[in-house]
Each structure stands twice: as structure tokens, then as C-alpha cells.
Amino acid sequence: MPNFLGTEATFFKEFARPIIKSQAHDACAHDIDQGLDSLKILHQQVLPFILRREKMQVINELPPKTVTDIPCQLSKEQLSIYQDILKMSGTKNALEIIENELHDKGDSSANGTMQKLGSDVLKSLLQLRLTCTHPLLHNAFASTNKSPSQKSGSCRSFTRLDCSGKLVALNELLRNSGIVESEMAAADNDDTGFLLDGDFDIVEAQADGGDDNAQHSTSKCLIFAQFTQSLDIVEQYLFEPHMPSLQYLRLDGRVPANSRQNIVERFNNDENIKVLLLTTKVGGLGLNLTGADKVILLEPDWNPFIDLQAQDRAHRIGQTKAVNIYRLITSNTIEEKMMELQNRKKAISDAVVNSENSTMFSMGTEKLLDIFTFRSSTSKSDSADDDNLLSYLDEESNEYASLSVDAFLGGLS
Q1: Over the stretch 200-234, which tens digit does the pLDDT of each residue have?
Q2: Are residues 308 and 382 in the same domain?
Q3: How far apart (Å, rounded) are the C-alpha atoms in residues 142 and 364?
Q4: CB atoms closer than 10 angstroms to residue 411
Q5: Do 325 and 364 sit in the same domain of this protein?
Q6: In a domain, 405, yes or no
Q7: Tell me, what DSSP letter sits at residue 62?
Q8: Residue 21 falls within a domain, yes or no?
Q9: Element holding 297 (H helix, E strand)
Q10: Residues 269 and 155 occupy one common structural domain
Q11: What is the pLDDT of residues 350-368, one digit of tens each?
């Protein structure tokens, strides 16, 4: 049914923009009213196509999932490179587009607008993201693309753990959460602090799971990254020099498809293997990794559902422990903007598909067919019809909300 919800521009104007504005913390009464009206109309248009069951509704025994954001600071090496990238024209254009999107000043999605501006904008954003993880990732990208922003002569010093705020945070997180034994000292006796923004106690962020020592002895962890090179960094500059006794596996695009299930089974069944390194693309292929009770997202994705899918590799049927999700977010960087955009997208999704998607059960045939009517304009008569429909939906909402799926299907027969 092409154009059932209009073009992308029409959808953004009639639905996405007013709904987003109504959910802002500074929304006025008029914005809230418009957002609710758009949301109700959108609910009714998509309702006939949606039947949704969430895990927590049908699996009462599934343990809880706790999501914790850990703010990390840029190291001085990362900060120097990051500031150089910010001076590039492509970076300024990209950040301006994102800011406009976050403040409802754009005419279309940020994704589409940035693509129209060319590859320089996208490369600038990629450089910022790589720098947030480790300066060597930007080095590799800069040398490949011959970027003038990269200063030479500092690669050697980038091999230290404290050159990346995220590696220091990951090191401390793995030790405090029981994945790595606390007596396992760093091979080079590197005494690095935990570069966190503000006060934060990782141990307190864990869900109650009984005796800590017993939980730590059996805990396993998934570490997801967006880029294969990020996993290389974790291996070469954290695991090998600082955690030489840690047993781990790796699953990414370099692993042949016929070998992946064997890696999954080894991770789930071998108590000595504590960590599995994955990329989010490989980790989204229906993998069952319930052997892990902790998930660390090293880098955020533009799409929130990619990250949610990664989290749920461990939080699914068969899991018996409380699952802790840790998201490493670099403060005052592009990653915070990405998380804001993620929250926007999730808010729209939750608004469109939720428990209030109701009232179709008792609608008559004529009103049900009205839902599928294509509106070619926004005339006054159309607006009046919409108002009448909304009034009817308000009256019938409570009746349908209390119905079971069987009752709903029976009512349509």
C-alpha cells in the first residue's frame, strides 16, 4: 500500500513533527494538543496492521534487564584530535544538521539531508565517532583518506591504556563486575584511573542477584562494537597487555558463517570463557547468547533498534540471571547527540505502537473503512471529519483496551 501514510515529507509534517514537539519538556498546551491529535489519527491508521506481544507480557519468569549509561571522558590525546576535526567545514555542517533535527528546525530527516551534502559530511561524523573510541582508529582512517587534520609522530604513545577513556572505563567495568578477577594485575603495572564524567559507582548499578562473589564467579559478558577495528583495539591494547589470563572468543564478519554456531555454543557452555567480542551486525542474526548476564555496548548506533537487538541477545528465553546492560557514552561529543536522536526515534516508535493502540474492536464497518481512506488534501472538511473521528475514538478507547486477543478476533468474525 504505497503512500498509505503519505510521502516521507508529508509523514514528517503531519505526524512526526507534531508528536515530537508535544513530547518536549518545554511543550506548550497547543503543541501538546496537536501532538495528541496527530498521534490518535496515526494510531488508527496503523492499528489494523499491528499485532504485538512483548516478552515481558508472555514470559513472566524472564529476569529483569537493567540499562546503565556510563559517561566517559575524552583523554587528552582524543580531545586534541577531536578539536581538530571540529574545525573542518564538513564537521560543522554535519553538527548543524543534527542540532536542527534535535530542535525541530529541519524540513526532513537528518539522515537524508546529510546524504545530499555529500561524503565529506558523513566522513566527518565517522571521524568523530572513531576518535571517541580510540585515537588510533582515527589515525587509521586519516591515513587511508589522507586527512590533513591528523598530526604525525604520536602513534606510539597511543598504545597506552589511558589514551582512550573508553578503554579505561571498559577495563574498570570488567574488573568491578566480576568478569576479570580483581587480583589480575595489569601486565605493565599501568596505574590508570577510571575516566568517568561525575560520580558513578558501577557496583551499585548492578541488579540484585544474591551473593556477589557467587555471581561474579559465573558471570559472562558480551562486548558489542560498531566497527571491527574497535574489537581489534580492545584485544591488542586491553586484553593482551592488561588481562593476559582472560579467556574470550570473537564473532564478527571475518568469522566464516559455518563456524559461528560453534563459537556460540562454546561461549554458552564453557565456564572458563568469560567474554565474547561481537560487532552489532553479526550479533543481530538471531543468536542465543543467554550464557551472558552482562552486555557492554562500546559504541552507539544511529538506529536505536540495532542496539536493542544487541542487548536482547542475552535477555531472552533461557536466561536465568538478571541482565545488566552498560552503554559507554563519551561526554560532550557526537555520541551524546546520537543518544538524543535514538531517544527521539524510540519515543516515536513507543508512541505509535503501545497499549493505547486501541478502539478498533467496536468500530462499525463504515468507520473502519474510513481508516483506509487516502486523504488527498487537508481541507476544512477533512479536519472536521478527523475531529469527529477522534471524539468517537475517545469514547470507545476503554472498551477495547480491556479485551483479550481472542475477544478481539471474535468480535471481528
Answers
A1: 444 333 444 444 443 445 899 999 999 999 999 99
A2: no
A3: 63
A4: 12
A5: no
A6: yes
A7: P
A8: yes
A9: strand 294-297
A10: yes
A11: 776 665 554 444 444 455 4
Contact 314, 221 (CB under 8 A): no
Q: In what order do the strands lie in the sheet with 65-72?
A: 65-72, 323-330, 294-297, 221-225, 275-279, 248-251
Locus of grid cell 589514551: 163
CA distances 365 to 52, 369, 371, Å, are 23, 6, 10
Residue 213 buriedness (CB in 10 A; 0-12 / 13-18 / 19+): exposed
Helix, strand, coil percentages in the chain from 3-state DSSP, rounded to 5: 55, 10, 40
Instruction: Name the residue with cell 496527530.
Output: 38
In a domain, 367, yes or no: yes
Q: Which domain does 366 fall in, by range?
A: 8-52+353-412
Q: What is the percent of the chain where pLDDT is above 70?
A: 66
90 in the same domain as 12: no
Residues 185 and 254 in one domain: yes
How far is Cα 176 from Cα 196, in angstroms, rounded to an integer?
14
Whether residue 109 contacts residue 12, with contact meaning beta carbons closer than 8 Å, is answered with yes
Upper half-sphere CA count for residue 368 (Cβ side, 13 Å) = 12
- For residues 220 and 277, membership in a common domain is answered with yes
Cell 582512517, located at residue:
141
Question: Which residue has 530542535 as its cell numbers?
Answer: 103
- Contact (CB, 8 A) for 133 and 164: yes
Residue 407 cell numbers, joined: 475477544
